[in-house]
C-alpha cells in the first residue's frame, strides 16, 4: 500500500509540482491514508536532519569559490588559454569550448555555472566565426556536464553523503571519466570539422597583454613550486621502492634543489614559444591553482573536502583582492547572496530527498526492488546495462541530486553485493545522471544554454544528439572497464 | 479583483521586507561558515590544536542560511519543477493547474509549520548542542550550552517564510487568472532565480 | 500481531547490535505467541544519530533504539559515566555492574529528564572495549601518547581524556577517518578492535594497538515508555525478558567476533601490546583529572559517578568472591 507513494510522486512531478514539494507530498499523503500519522513527523524531522551535515557544507563553499573565481575575467583567462592551445585546429572554437569546460570543471562543481559562464562568452564568439547558434549552444551544453564529473563536484558530494562513501575517493575517481568525456566530445568535433568544414581560429586573441608585477611574481613562484612538488612526489614514488629513509631535512634540501631545476626547465621552455603565448599561459596560472589546492590538499591529507572547499574560497578572495584586483569589497555581499540562495535550494532539496528516502525504507521498496532486479538476471554485466538504461531515463526527467538520493540507497547495495566496487558504482551512477542534465526533455543545462543563447530548447536538443551519443559511449566504457575510474583512487590509496 | 489586490499589496510588501532581512542574515551566515572552517584548518595545522566548535557552528550557520534564503528562491520561481504540461495547456487551464499545484504546496507547508512548531518546543529541542556555548549570565562567569532548538528553529522559520510566499503566489495566480496580470506588483530580481 | 514494535540501530548487520536485535525479535515473537511483532530497521533509514533517534523514541515514531553513550549524551549527559576511563577492570565486572541496580538508577534518571518518555531497558555491549590505537609507535606508557593526534567524537569527555594523557584530540567524522589516517590528519583513535578491522584501518597505517581497555563500550537500549506501559503486564514481562536475552547476546557476541579481528590484525603485521598492571596503573593515574572534570562539569555527574563506584565495588566483592570459591 505504502509503495504507491512512488507512482504518486511521479504523477506530481509530471504535472509540474516543484520537486521539493513532490518529495514530501507524495509520501505524506500515502502515510496519512495508511494511518501512519506518526511517520509524517518523521518525514519533517528528516528534512532537517538531512540538511544538518558537515560534508554537505562543501556545496555552498564550492559554489562560492566558483562565483568568486568567475568574477573579473577569470573565465576569459581560461578561454584564452584554451584557445592558445587548441584554437588553431579545425573546429577551433568548438575545441576551445570543450577544453575550457574541462579547465573550468576544476574550479566549479556545477554544470549550470559552467554553461552560463562559458556560454555567454563563447556562443556569441562562435556565431561570429560562422558556427550556427544551435551548434554553439549544443557544444556548450554537452561539454558543461564535465563540470560535476571532474572534481570538485556537488553531485559527488551528495552521493558520498547519502551512501557513506569518502568524498575524496569519488573526486579522484571522477578525473579520468571527466577527461574521457572531454576527449570524446573533441573527437566528435574533429569528425564534424571534416564534414562541415568548421573554421580554425587564431591562437592569440589579444596580443600584447601586460601583467601587473604582483601577479607576475605570484605566478612565477606558483609555477616553480608546483613543478617542484610534482617532481618531489615522483622522487618519493621512486624512493619508496628503495629502502632509503628520507628525513625532513633531506626532503627540504631536495625540494630546494628541485625548485632550482624547475626554474631552469621553465627557462629552457621560454625560447620555444612566442611572447604572447607565454603571457596567455602565465595568466592562467593563478586561476588554475584552485584545482591544485583542492586536489593536492585532499591528497596529501591537509584538508577534508569541506575544508578544501573553504580554503578554495579563501584563495579566491586573496587572489581577487590582492593579486588580480578583480573583486571589489562592495561586490562581495552580492556574491555571498547568490551562492547562499543557490545552495539553500540545493540543501532543501537534499533534505526533502533524505526524508523521502526514509519512506522508501519504511515501504520496504529496496527489498522489493532488489528482488525484482535480481529476477531479471543474475549476471552483473547485464544488470549494469539495464541499470544504465534506467538511470538514463530517470536522468531525462529528474535532476541528478534528487535522483541520487532516492535511487542510490535502492540500487547501490544490490550491485555492491554482486561484487561491483561501491566507488565504481558511484561513478557509473553520478556520470550517467550528470549527463542527464543535458538530455531532453528535462535537462537543466539545456534550459540554461537556451536562455544564454536565445535558441529554442528543442533545437539545441536535436543538435546535441551526436555529442550525447559519445557521452553514452563513455558511460558504457566506464561501466565495463572499472580501471578507468578506480585506478587513481587505488594508486593514491583512497580505495581498496 | 480590487479586494485581492488590496490583500496582495501589503503581503507582497511584508514578504519583500522579511526576505530582504533573511538574505542579509543569510549573507552573514555564509561568511561566518567560511570563517569557522578556516579557523578550524588554521588551528589544526598551524597550532596543532583542533577546536571542537567550528564544525557545529558552521552547520548552525548553514541551516539558518537555508531557512532564510530558500524562500527568496521560491518567490523568484527558483524551485526546480517540470513545467512542460503547464506550458502545453491553453493559458487559462495552465494557470488553473499552477493554482492547484500551489494549493498542494501550501498544504505541505501548513503541515510542516505545525510539526515544526511542535518539534522546536518539544523534546528534541531540549538536547544540548555538543560544543556551542552562550553566556549564562551578564558577568560571563557561567556558560550554558546552546539548546538544539536554536538550530531547529531555522527550518521552522524557513517553512513559515515559504508559507507567506506561497500565499502571495496564490494571490498573484488568482489575480492573473481573472485578467489582472498587468496590475501585479513586480517581484524584485525575479530573473535571478538562482536554482541549480 | 497486537503490538508491532519498530526497532532501529544505526549500525549494520555485521554489528553485535544486530545480533542482539535478532535474539530479541526471536524471543519476543515466540514468547508472546505472536502477539508482539518486532520490525527491524538497521542503518540510518529512519534516523541517523542519537539526538534524532531519541527524539523519535520520545515522539513515538520509533519504539526501540540502541545508542552509544556519546549518542545519548546530548540529552542525558551523565550516561558518559560509561566512558570514564579505567573504571571497570574486565568483562565480568562490567557485566555484573550492568546487570544490576546501576542500570535501574540510570533508567530513573533518564525517565526524570525526559518527562517520562524515554525508558532505558538494558545496557549491553557494542564492540568490546575501547583501546588506544595509532599509526606511529607502540604506546606502553602514558608518556608515549605525547603529541599524538587522536581522533575523538565531538564531545567533551573523550577530548578531556585525550588531553589529560598529553595527546591532542581531533574531531573527524567517522566516514573520513580512513583517509585521515592515511594522510596523517590524525594519528590515532580510541576504538574497539572490530571497528578497527571492519573499517580496514590497518590498511591506512593504523598498526599499533595498546590493549589498555580504557572504556567499556556500553550499548544503551532505549524504548518508548508510553509504548511499554501501554502493554499489559504479561507482555511487558516478555519484553523485559527479551531485553535480558538481548543483553546476554551482546555481552557474548563481541568476544566471539573479536577473536578473528585480533588474528587478522596481527597477521597483517599489526603490533598488539598488552600493558603490564603497573603500566595500566600509570594510565589510570594520568587519566585521573577526568574524574574530577566529570563530577564538576557534567549535570548529575557526581550522582551517577557515586552510583557507578558503588556498583563496581559491589561487583568486585561479589565476582572476586565467586572467583575465590571456584578456585578450589
Ligand atoms: Na568540477
Ligand atoms: Na563548454
Automatic annotation (TrEMBL), chain A:
Pfam families: DctM. GO terms for cellular component: plasma membrane. GO terms for molecular function: transmembrane transporter activity. The chain crosses the membrane at residues 6-33, 135-162, 168-193, 214-240, 246-266, 286-303, 309-327, 339-360, 380-398, 405-427, 433-452, 464-483. It comes from the Bacteria. Keywords: Cell inner membrane, Cell membrane, Membrane, Transmembrane, Transmembrane helix, Transport. It is found in: Cell inner membrane. It is a multi-pass membrane protein. Residues 8-257 form the TRAP C4-dicarboxylate transport system permease DctM subunit domain. Part of the tripartite ATP-independent periplasmic (TRAP) transport system. This is Neu5Ac permease. It comes from Roseibium album. The gene is siaT_34.
From TrEMBL, chain B:
One of its GO terms (molecular function) is transmembrane transporter activity. The keyword Transmembrane helix applies. GO terms for cellular component: plasma membrane. It is a multi-pass membrane protein. It comes from the Bacteria. GO terms for biological process: C4-dicarboxylate transport. The chain crosses the membrane at residues 26-47, 96-117, 150-171. Residues 33-173 form the Tripartite ATP-independent periplasmic transporters DctQ component domain. It is found in: Cell inner membrane. Keywords: Cell inner membrane, Cell membrane, Membrane, Transmembrane, Transmembrane helix, Transport. PANTHER family: 2,3-DIKETO-L-GULONATE TRAP TRANSPORTER SMALL PERMEASE PROTEIN YIAM. Belongs to the TRAP transporter small permease family. Part of the tripartite ATP-independent periplasmic (TRAP) transport system. The complex comprises the extracytoplasmic solute receptor protein and the two transmembrane proteins. This is TRAP transporter small permease protein. The lineage of its organism: Bacteria, Pseudomonadati, Pseudomonadota, Alphaproteobacteria, Hyphomicrobiales.
Amino acid at each position: 500500500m505504502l509503495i504507491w507513494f512512488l507512482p504518486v510522486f511521479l504523477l506530481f512531478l509530471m504535472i509540474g509540482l516543484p520537486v521539493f514539494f513532490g518529495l514530501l507530498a507524495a509520501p505524506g499523503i500515502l502515510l496519512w491514508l495508511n494511518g501512519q500519522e506518526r511517520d509524517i513527523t518523521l518525514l519533517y524531522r528528516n528534512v532537517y536532519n538531512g540538511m544538518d551535515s558537515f560534508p554537505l557544507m562543501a556545496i555552498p563553499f564550492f559554489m562560492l569559490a566558483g562565483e568568486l573565481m568567475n568574477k573579473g575575467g577569470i573565465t576569459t583567462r581560461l578561454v584564452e588559454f584554451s584557445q592558445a592551445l587548441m584554437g588553431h585546429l579545425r573546429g577551433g572554437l568548438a575545441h576551445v569550448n570543450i577544453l575550457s569546460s574541462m579547465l573550468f570543471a576544476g574550479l566549479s562543481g556545477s554544470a549550470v555555472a559552467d554553461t552560463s559562464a562559458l556560454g555567454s562568452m563563447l556562443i556569441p564568439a562562435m556565431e561570429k566565426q560562422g558556427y550556427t547558434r544551435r551548434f554553439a549552444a549544443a557544444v556548450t551544453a554537452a561539454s558543461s556536464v564535465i563540470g560535476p564529473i571532474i572534481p570538485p563536484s556537488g553531485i559527488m558530494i551528495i552521493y558520498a553523503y547519502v551512501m557513506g562513501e569518502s568524498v575524496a575517493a569519488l573526486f579522484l575517481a571522477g578525473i579520468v571519466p571527466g577527461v574521457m568525456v572531454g576527449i570524446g566530445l573533441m573527437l566528435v568535433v574533429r569528425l564534424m570539422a571534416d564534414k562541415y568544414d568548421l573554421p580554425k581560429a587564431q591562437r592569440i586573441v589579444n596580443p600584447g597583454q601586460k601583467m601587473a608585477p604582483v601577479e607576475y611574481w605570484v605566478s612565477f613562484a606558483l609555477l616553480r613550486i608546483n613543478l617542484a612538488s610534482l617532481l618531489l612526489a615522483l622522487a618519493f614514488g621512486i624512493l619508496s621502492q628503495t629502502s632509503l629513509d628520507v628525513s625532513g631535512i633531506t626532503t627540504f634540501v631536495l625540494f630546494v634543489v628541485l625548485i632550482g631545476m624547475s626554474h631552469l626547465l621553465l627557462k629552457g621552455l621560454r625560447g620555444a614559444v612566442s611572447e604572447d603565448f607565454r603571457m596567455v599561459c602565465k595568466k592562467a596560472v593563478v586561476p588554475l591553482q584552485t584545482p591544485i589546492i583542492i586536489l593536492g590538499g585532499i591528497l596529501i591529507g591537509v584538508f577534508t573536502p569541506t575544508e578544501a572547499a573553504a580554503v578554495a574560497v579563501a584563495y579566491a578572495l586573496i587572489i581577487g583582492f590582492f593579486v588580480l584586483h578583480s573583486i571589489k569589497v562592495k561586490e562581495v555581499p552580492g556574491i555571498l547572496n547568490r551562492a547562499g540562495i543557490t545552495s539553500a535550494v540545493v540543501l532543501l532539496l537534499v533534505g526533502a530527498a533524505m526524508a523521502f528516502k526514509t519512506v522508501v525504507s519504511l515501504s520496504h521498496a529496496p527489498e522489493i526492488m532488489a528482488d525484482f532486479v535480481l529476477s531479471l538476471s543474475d549476471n552483473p554485466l547485464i544488470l549494469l546495462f539495464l541499470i544504465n538504461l534506467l538511470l538514463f531515463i530517470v536522468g531525462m526527467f529528474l535532476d541528478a541530486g534528487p535522483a541520487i538520493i532516492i535511487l542510490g540507497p535502492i540500487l547501490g547495495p544490490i550491485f555492491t553485493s554482486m561484487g561491483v566496487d561501491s566507488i565504481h558504482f558511484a561513478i557509473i551512477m553520478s556520470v550517467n545522471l550528470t549527463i542527464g542534465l543535458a538530455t531532453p526533455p528535462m535537462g537543466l543545462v539545456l534550459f540554461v544554454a537556451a536562455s544564454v543563447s536565445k535558441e529554442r530548447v528543442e533545437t539545441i536538443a536535436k543538435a546535441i544528439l551526436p555529442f550525447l551519443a559519445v557521452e553514452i559511449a563513455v558511460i558504457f566504457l566506464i561501466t565495463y572497464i572499472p580501471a578507468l575510474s578506480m585506478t587513481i583512487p587505488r594508486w593514491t590509496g583512497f580505495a581498496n | 479583483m480590487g479586494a485581492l489586490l488590496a490583500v496582495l499589496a501589503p503581503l507582497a510588501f511584508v514578504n519583500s521586507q522579511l526576505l530582504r532581512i533573511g538574505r542579509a542574515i543569510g549573507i552573514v551566515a555564509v561568511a561566518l561558515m567560511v570563517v569557522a572552517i578556516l579557523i578550524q584548518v588554521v588551528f589544526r595545522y598551524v597550532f596543532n590544536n583542533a577546536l571542537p566548535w567550528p564544525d557545529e557552528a558552521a552547520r548552525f550557520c548553514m541551516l539558518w542560511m537555508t531557512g532564510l534564503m530558500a524562500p527568496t528562491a521560491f518567490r523568484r520561481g527558483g524551485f526546480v519543477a517540470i513545467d512542460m504540461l503547464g506550458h502545453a495547456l491553453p493559458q487559462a487551464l495552465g494557470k488553473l493547474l499552477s493554482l492547484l499545484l500551489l494549493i498542494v504546496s501550501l498544504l505541505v507547508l501548513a503541515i510542516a509549520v505545525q510539526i515544526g512548531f511542535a518539534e522546536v518546543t518539544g523534546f528534541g529541542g531540549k538536547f544540548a548542542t555538543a560544543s556551542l556555548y552562550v553566556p549564562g549570565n551578564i558577568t560571563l562567569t557561567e556558560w550554558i550550552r546552546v539548546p538544539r532548538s536554536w538550530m531547529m528553529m531555522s527550518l521552522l522559520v524557513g517553512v513559515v517564510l515559504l508559507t507567506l510566499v506561497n500565499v502571495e503566489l496564490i494571490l498573484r495566480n488568482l489575480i492573473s487568472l481573472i485578467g489582472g496580470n498587468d496590475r501585479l506588483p513586480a517581484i524584485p530580481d525575479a530573473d535571478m532565480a538562482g536554482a541549480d | 500481531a497486537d503490538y508491532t514494535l519498530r526497532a532501529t540501530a544505526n549500525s549494520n548487520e555485521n554489528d553485535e547490535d544486530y545480533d542482539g536485535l535478532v535474539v530479541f525479535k526471536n524471543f519476543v515473537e515466540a514468547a508472546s505467541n505472536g502477539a508482539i511483532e518486532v520490525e527491524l530497521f538497521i542503518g540510518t533509514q529512519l534516523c541517523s544519530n542519537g539526538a534524532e533517534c531519541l527524539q523519535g523514541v520520545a515522539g513515538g515514531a520509533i519504539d526501540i533504539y540502541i545508542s552509544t553513550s556519546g549518542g545519548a549524551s546530548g540529552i542525558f549527559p551523565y550516561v558518559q559515566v560509561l566512558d570514564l576511563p579505567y573504571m571497570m577492570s574486565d568483562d565480568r565486572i562490567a557485566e555484573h555492574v550492568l546487570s544490576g541496580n546501576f542500570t535501574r538508577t540510570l533508567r530513573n534518571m533518564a525517565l526524570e529528564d525526559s518527562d517520562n518518555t524515554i525508558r532505558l531497558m538494558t545496557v549491553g555491549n557494542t564492540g568490546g572495549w575501547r583501546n588506544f590505537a595509532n599509526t606511529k609507535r607502540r604506546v606502553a606508557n602514558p608518556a608515549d601518547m605525547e603529541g599524538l593526534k587522536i581522533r575523538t567524537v565531538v564531545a567533551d569527555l573523550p577530548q578531556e581524556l585525550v588531553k589529560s594523557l598529553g595527546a591532542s584530540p581531533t574531531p573527524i567524522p567517522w566516514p573520513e577517518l580512513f583517509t585521515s589516517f592515511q594522510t596523517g590528519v590524525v594519528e590515532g583513535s580510541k576504538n574497539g578492535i572490530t571497528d578497527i578491522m571492519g573499517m580496514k584501518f590497518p590498511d591506512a597505517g593504523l598498526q599499533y594497538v595498546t590493549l589498555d581497555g580504557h572504556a567499556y563500550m556500553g550499548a544503551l537500549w532505549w524504548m518508548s515508555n508510553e509504548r511499554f506501559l501501554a502493554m499489559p503486564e504479561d507482555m511487558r514481562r516478555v519484553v523485559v525478558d527479551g531485553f535480558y536475552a538481548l543483553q546476554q547476546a551482546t555481552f557474548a557476541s563481541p568476544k566471539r567476533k573479536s577473536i578473528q579481528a585480533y588474528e587478522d590484525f596481527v597477521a597483517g603485521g599489526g603490533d598488539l601490546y598488552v600493558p603490564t598492571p603497573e603500566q595500566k596503573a600509570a594510565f589510570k593515574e594520568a587519566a585521573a583529572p577526568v574524574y574530577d572534570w566529570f563530577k564538576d562539569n557534567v549535570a548529575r555527574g557526581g550522582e551517577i559517578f557515586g552510583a557507578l563506584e558503588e556498583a563496581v565495588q559491589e561487583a568486585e566483592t561479589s565476582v572476586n568472591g565467586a572467583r575465590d570459591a571456584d578456585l578450589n
